């Protein structure tokens, strides 16, 4: 017999939710869809720390009228036509589904969902989905191994904004960065070894390319640069390489200001001009392949290197939904759910 009175609203079985959050993707490759995505992304004060009135003018007069066309062309080169979606959405969904199945085998009370910070599915919509399934406790897991205010912090901001609109709020935990987690480092090293084993040549230099960040963000106290350096050092040690064989660089700079250096594209050209002919690039700051890894590194990076004289180039795939990556993420999630499970 139910302890609830007959007219009581239905009550879901109590569960624990895990919400994986990655950066963003447009819903399509046409210019209007990319413009909508860029408007949301580049309007985030965490991402662009410029006087908002000045930036609004720059964004609407100089960026949004022109950049969406160029970005749409980049997305079209890596778009999954069968699923009609970006690889980032495909892989993030696959990660969530693999983790949900993994936990479902021995912890059926844990439900895993996924969201995007910008675009769809939104963080607020997925918090609603989890809560409707009885998840009164939710672990927010930003898929950024290295912390930055422009990535991890803005995910947390958006999640707490969503809670502001809820009368009955779930308890919310936020997972810390995992740039030095042994499982994550081991998965990176295993993925790198596996890919190198498929080549009929060996790289003279491996670049660990991380997404860039304006230098003044670092000077204001953002720990991102330090986290990237530690990830690269631990990966270097795991691979038994020195700092000449595995070098750290930064990609995806935007605008005229100085960003963290050395720059990936500049380094690729300099290596080729210095006589290095064989290079591999791994992107340890990206949990899933996306336009920055598949178009910027795999396509444009190869062009930059070969045009400067390089002959052999490899872009190492991200960990995506590989078993080792899913196991590493599961270990991190179990740790952060301590006391709840």
Distance between the termini: 27 Å
How many helix segments?
12
Shape: globular
For this structure, the quaternary state is single chain
Number of strands: 8
Low-pLDDT parts are none
Mean of residue pLDDT values: 96
Largest β sheet strand count, sense and barrel closure: 4 strands, parallel
**Beta fraction of the residues?**
15-25%
Strand order of the main beta sheet, please? 2-1-3-4
Helical/strand content category: alpha/beta
Considering DSSP H and I runs of 4 or more, what fraction of the residues is helical? 40-55%
Radius of gyration: 21 Å
Give the H and E element order: EHHHHEHEHEHEHHEHEHEH
If you had to describe this structure to a student in words, what would you say it looks like?
The radius of gyration is 21 Å and the shape is globular. 47% of the residues lie in helices and 16% in strands. It has helices at 31-42, 52-63, 67-78, 87-106, 123-132, 149-164, 182-197, 215-219, 224-239, 264-273, 291-307, 323-336, and strands at residues 15-25, 110-119, 135-142, 171-174, 205-211, 246-251, 278-282, 312-315. The model has no long low-confidence stretch (mean pLDDT 96). The protein has twelve helices and eight strands. It starts with 14 loop residues before the first strand and ends in a 5-residue tail after the last helix. With 341 residues, the chain is of the alpha/beta class. It has a four-stranded parallel beta sheet with strand order 2-1-3-4, with helices on both faces. Helix 1 packs across helix 3, helix 3 crosses helix 11 and helix 7 packs antiparallel against helix 12.
């Amino acid at each position: 017999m139910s302890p609830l009175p007959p007219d009581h609203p239905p009550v879901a079985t109590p569960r624990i939710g895990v919400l994986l959050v990655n950066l963003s993707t447009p819903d399509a490759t046409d210019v209007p869809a990319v413009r909508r995505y860029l408007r949301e992304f580049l309007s985030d004060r965490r991402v662009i720390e410029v006087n908002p009135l000045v930036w609004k003018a720059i964004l609407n007069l100089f960026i949004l009228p022109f950049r969406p066309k160029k970005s749409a062309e980049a997305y079209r080169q890596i778009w999954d036509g069968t699923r009609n979606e970006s690889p980032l959405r495909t892989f993030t969904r696959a990660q969530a589904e693999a983790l949900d199945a993994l936990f479902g085998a021995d912890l059926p009370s844990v439900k895993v969902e996924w969201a995007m910070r910008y675009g769809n599915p939104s963080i607020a919509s997925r918090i609603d989905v989890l809560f409707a399934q009885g998840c009164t406790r939710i672990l927010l897991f930003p898929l950024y191994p290295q912390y930055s205010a422009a990535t991890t912090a803005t995910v947390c901001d958006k999640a707490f904004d969503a809670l502001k609109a809820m009368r009955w709020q779930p308890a919310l935990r936020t997972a810390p960065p995992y740039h030095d987690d042994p499982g994550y480092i081991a998965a990176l090293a295993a993925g790198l070894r596996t890919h190198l084993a498929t080549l009929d040549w060996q790289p003279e230099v491996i670049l660990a390319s991380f997404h860039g960040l304006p230098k003044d963000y670092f000077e204001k106290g953002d720990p991102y640069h330090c986290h990237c350096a530690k990830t690269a050092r631990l990966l270097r040690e795991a691979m038994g390489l020195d700092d000449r064989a595995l070098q750290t660089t930064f990609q995806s700079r935007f605008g005229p200001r100085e960003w963290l250096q050395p720059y990936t594209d500049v380094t690729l050209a300099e290596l080729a001009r210095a006589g290095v002919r064989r290079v591999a690039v791994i992107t340890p700051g990206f949990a899933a392949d996306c336009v920055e890894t598949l178009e910027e590194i795999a396509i444009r990076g190869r062009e930059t290197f070969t045009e400067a004289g390089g002959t052999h180039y490899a872009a190492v795939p991200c960990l995506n939904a590989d078993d080792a990556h899913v196991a590493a993420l599961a270990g991190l999630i179990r740790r952060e759910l301590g006391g709840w499970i």
